[in-house]
From TrEMBL, chains A, B:
<dbReference type="InterPro" id="IPR016204">
    <property type="entry name" value="HDH"/>
</dbReference>
<dbReference type="InterPro" id="IPR002912">
    <property type="entry name" value="ACT_dom"/>
</dbReference>
<dbReference type="InterPro" id="IPR045865">
    <property type="entry name" value="ACT-like_dom_sf"/>
</dbReference>
<comment type="similarity">
    <text>Belongs to the homoserine dehydrogenase family.</text>
</comment>
<dbReference type="InterPro" id="IPR036291">
    <property type="entry name" value="NAD(P)-bd_dom_sf"/>
</dbReference>
<keyword id="KW-0521">NADP</keyword>
<dbReference type="Pfam" id="PF03447">
    <property type="entry name" value="NAD_binding_3"/>
</dbReference>
<keyword id="KW-0915">Sodium</keyword>
<keyword id="KW-0520">NAD</keyword>
<keyword id="KW-0791">Threonine biosynthesis</keyword>
<comment type="pathway">
    <text>Amino-acid biosynthesis; L-threonine biosynthesis; L-threonine from L-aspartate: step 3/5.</text>
</comment>
<dbReference type="GO" id="GO:0009086">
    <property type="term" value="P:methionine biosynthetic process"/>
</dbReference>
<dbReference type="InterPro" id="IPR019811">
    <property type="entry name" value="HDH_CS"/>
</dbReference>
<feature type="active site" description="Proton donor">
    <location>
        <position position="205"/>
    </location>
</feature>
<keyword id="KW-0479">Metal-binding</keyword>
<dbReference type="GO" id="GO:0009088">
    <property type="term" value="P:threonine biosynthetic process"/>
</dbReference>
<keyword id="KW-0560">Oxidoreductase</keyword>
Length: 432, 432
């Protein structure tokens, strides 16, 4: 086989990493795919910008059609990001029988199934390992490694920015705003951090994971999302005291035929394998009926880690090209989507309240819970500086989301409750 | 495609799991491979033994040829264990163009490359994911997920029995012999635990991992092996005090073109991701030049976890059969094996000595180290019950194995040194 020519859409952080890996590991790649890999053309916005890698200027172009319509280019690597325009490029490429490797989680979360159908119709591979958890080969593990199992639960720390912020807040007792600024200086958070800190980025990744893991077409809108911006130092301190670590966790849970997917700040028992995932690292915990507990840990972002996933996908495409079996790997979802009702979603909850420090108040509050048959795992009561108020921290046993939301409404109506300071989902049982 | 018929060699722990998963997950498997899977025949030793699964008696046979020569059987699942006889069965099967899925680490560690060659010559798949770390899809991750990277280090907790024993010893301060008995009662250790506790089982798995990860034909004899039988409660206690956890770690390390592979009890910094792998769980930590740190965690043994890996491999074979591309996946080693010399293998070491409590002794001992330019990270000295002796605990900085072994010889010759109580490899830097 002659050299394979590839086209790159984008030459930012990940694109530069892809160029570097193809150069540095050319020997290994050639041994695996049987021919050299040549980056022929790269789409960029600005021809004169300074680059992190040395690139022959003739390879750069601002005209996507020079790549999308080049008959010599067999595979396109999409690392430019973006939605509508990028999607159009990808459709053009697939219709021109070009295989695609992409790191674009936004696009795959929203238009993944449409694009995969077009790929399959054109006998093209469309691989997207890099879209979830950077360097961790989690999509392959779900699809191939655990192919024979029935996956019932996935829990992911799939956003490095928020995990970095929560780790620093926990370790140093710093406030959210302060750590966010540090993360921005270090390059772990963007100037506009909304998509990360509001949980949207994690929700996109959970959409992709749940669709693959449950073989069911989960949409981004199906995912309940809550970010980390309202987490306070008090919450972290109480969590620690009770044996829990605060993490932004994506949970996809299947019971019977029904599923629910959510991204929420979660107090995770310190004994859980995910609780020790620090800083900007990612990890995905997968529970399968037969295999039991597994976890996949690694860098969730960064130039070279993400590029490793991209180029490994490229190797997969090239092996398929050699065997003449491209476009045969994607499995259409097996099950019709069925989402759980709030009455079917169970969790434990952490609740922090400020209440009047008067006789009977505690009984008032707990009776709201017992009306819904929700009992407690832990209860703390502490005096507050304002003498007439006290702080109550509750950790419930399992309760349905429906019941819990009804309880919150009733608590807000109680005269004795001044404020509901915070409320989080709780996972696992702490030893403390 | 009609039903695929498979033959099973063996119906023990893993074999029963395979039968269960094929029954319980028939729907998912059929969706993926496009046809039903039928277990046609199972080789057993005793037709009348009671089984963990319900099996039609007509399916059982004591004659291997009924499976190996059955033209209807396309895939053979080898879960009987054993070496010579099993190898002959596998060769017969491959020559009859039957694909094989095996969980046999002993066989693959010793005869893997021979068997893979025969498989490839006969256009057959030979998959063996289950042979290393049970339910963790680590072999696929090395070969596919990290295909584009250059792997420089692998560290594995790949034996559940010894990890269970060391976890219990660490948590409860119990003695080795006591915990071994408990493990035997619970079924985590065999009546003859030699292969596990002497590190041989882990060495076989490291042979397979190193061969794949470094693309180099590593042999079992290349692996330096030391078991856990001489680890004492004192060693664990000192380790804890210094911020280290004792684990039986397989390390495969590549520097430049040279590698070394070993299995040894290792004091691992508490901050290392492997340090929190408890009980009978397994984990493999992989360091790649581009991806950086990754870790794969899960159950290392057990009926259903191991069977998950076996049946996921079966799905892989069946997908390849459908596409007509069996026997094309194995990549022959790219590099010629080059093992490091003892002078090229670097590590930190923990050393515990009993010495005469006299003036000048400490200077005597440390001067042996400085002759070899080895310095210390930590030093502890404690009095012993026998008044004239003291206990010294040293943690060195990086030293070559050559230097360290020379130092041990010299220390043994010193009059002031009564005994070298223990000596372990140290990995990572503790925060303590």
């Amino acid at each position: 086989m002659e050299a394979i020519s590839i086209g790159l859409l984008g030459l930012g952080t990940v694109g530069s990493g892809v160029v570097k890996i193809i150069e540095n590991h050319q020997d290994k790649l050639m041994h695996q795919v049987g021919c050299p890999i040549k980056v022929k053309k790269i789409l960029v916005k600005d021809l004169n910008k300074e680059r992190a890698v040395k690139i022959d200027n003739e390879k750069l172009t601002t005209d996507p059609d020079e790549i999308l319509y080049d008959p010599e280019i067999d595979v396109i690597i999409e690392v430019m990001g973006g939605m509508k325009e990028t999607k159009n490029y990808m459709i053009k490429a697939l219709r021109n029988r070009k295989h695609i490797v992409t790191a674009n989680k936004d696009l795959m979360a929203v238009h993944g199934s449409e694009l995969l159908t077009i790929a399959s119709e054109n006998e093209c591979d469309l691989f997207y390992e890099a879209s979830v958890a950077g360097g961790i080969p989690i999509l392959r593990s779900l699809v191939d490694g655990l192919a024979s199992d029935r996956i019932t639960k996935m829990m992911g720390i799939v956003n490095g920015t928020t995990n970095f912020i929560l780790t620093k807040m926990s370790k140093h007792g710093s406030a959210y705003e302060e750590v966010l600024k540090e993360a921005q200086v270090l390059g772990y958070a963007e100037a506009d951090p909304t998509s990360d800190v509001e949980g949207l980025d994690a929700a996109r990744k959970m959409t992709i994971l749940a669709t693959l893991g449950f073989s069911m077409k989960i949409e981004l809108d199906d995912v309940k999302v809550e970010g980390i911006t309202r987490i306070t130092e008090e919450d972290l301190r109480y969590g620690r005291q009770l044996g829990y670590t605060m993490k932004l966790i994506g949970i996809a849970h299947r019971e019977g035929e029904k599923v629910d997917v959510s991204v929420q700040p979660t107090l995770l028992a310190d004994t859980h394998p995910l609780a020790s995932v620090q800083d900007e690292f990612n990890a995905v915990y997968v529970y399968g009926e037969a295999v039991g507990e597994t976890m996949f840990y690694g860098p969730g972002a960064g130039s070279l880690p993400t590029a490793t996933a991209v180029v490994s996908d490229l190797v997969g495409v090239m092996k398929n090209m050699r065997l003449g079996v491209t476009g045969k790997n994607s499995v259409t979802p097996q099950y019709k989507k069925q989402l759980k009702e709030p009455s079917e979603i169970y969790s434990k909850y952490f609740l922090r309240l400020h209440v009047r420090d008067e006789v009977g108040v505690f009984a008032n509050i707990t009776s709201v819970f017992s009306e819904h048959r929700v009992s407690f795992e832990k209860i703390l009561q502490m005096p507050l500086k304002e003498k007439e108020y006290a702080e109550i921290v509750l950790v419930t046993h399992q309760a349905s989301l429906q019941d819990y939301e009804d309880i919150l409404v009733k608590l807000r109506d109680l005269q004795a409750v001044k404020t509901i300071e915070s409320s989080y989902r709780v996972e696992g049982s702490a030893n403390v």
